[in-house]
């Protein structure tokens, strides 16, 4: 819901920039966002307890839980970007993309750790960040989006607190803790006993995602990031979600993780032809077709994996009654 509303009011992350309040999101939406995000986070923490209470825990529930969280990992930052937008004295579009990638890295590393150790450890920064998002929405409702442009010191607006917090918690804290936990599991021989290459294998898809999409935006003659930033962010996020879901399935089934995601194959072709595309409209059309295609592919993948899990476990998808 939050993603849809911000897409409608702020497709290019510019609604909060400038003094024209008629172009901004109505303030009531920030209050609705706070309530919606708090409710979603609360339910996200209750599903496991409910499953254990009803004796219905299964790998299907794990896939639903963390698979949907992999989508929230890019939807939440994109919605927050509408708070302060981009421009001189704030942050650039490229910087917004870097922040989103940092958030994706933090989420992915947690599941990379589980692939190696067999245990998922979510750091305290996860719950803290979710509650912080609720607080940010409430502050915006009470004070308006101009709050995030207040200069805490020359050249350091309030929105930069979010920027550096995202970098610190996602890149430094989460990655450092994951590496430390994998090291401890290795020396205590409680990990899965994977070789160095096998342990690092899941990261190949993530590195490929970042490298190929970054090549696209750098080679784009029309500046695709400036033309359709939200669509470009969404395409990156959908591929990330599919990579993460496949990692979750590989971990649950004890199989080798794929080193390269099939969704990245079209990007390989796109970066070869996009330097020769002289029309901005054509490149936007390519991005739109690609985004729509991978969205359908990702939904198709999720539906069929869920059906196969239900058949294998002899359970129903949305009911705890046995078939």
How would you characterize the overall build of this protein?
The structure is a single chain. With 323 residues, the chain is mostly helical. The two termini are 33 Å apart. 71% of the residues lie in helices and 2% in strands.
Structural key phrases:
323 residues; mainly alpha; two-stranded antiparallel ribbon; 71% helix; 2% strand; globular
Q: Which strand-content bin applies to the residues? A: under 5%
Number of helices: 11
The separation of the N and C termini measures 33 Å
Total number of strands: 2
Assign the structural class, choosing from mainly alpha, mainly beta, alpha/beta, alpha+beta, or little secondary structure. Answer: mainly alpha
Query: What's the overall average pLDDT, rounded?
Result: 88
Order of helices and strands: HHHHHEEHHHHHH
Task: Let me know the largest β-sheet.
Answer: 2 strands, antiparallel
| Helical fraction | over 70%
Sequence stretches where pLDDT stays below 50 over 5 or more residues = none
Morphology call: globular
Strand order of the largest sheet: 1-2
What is the alpha-carbon Rg in Å? Answer: 21 Å
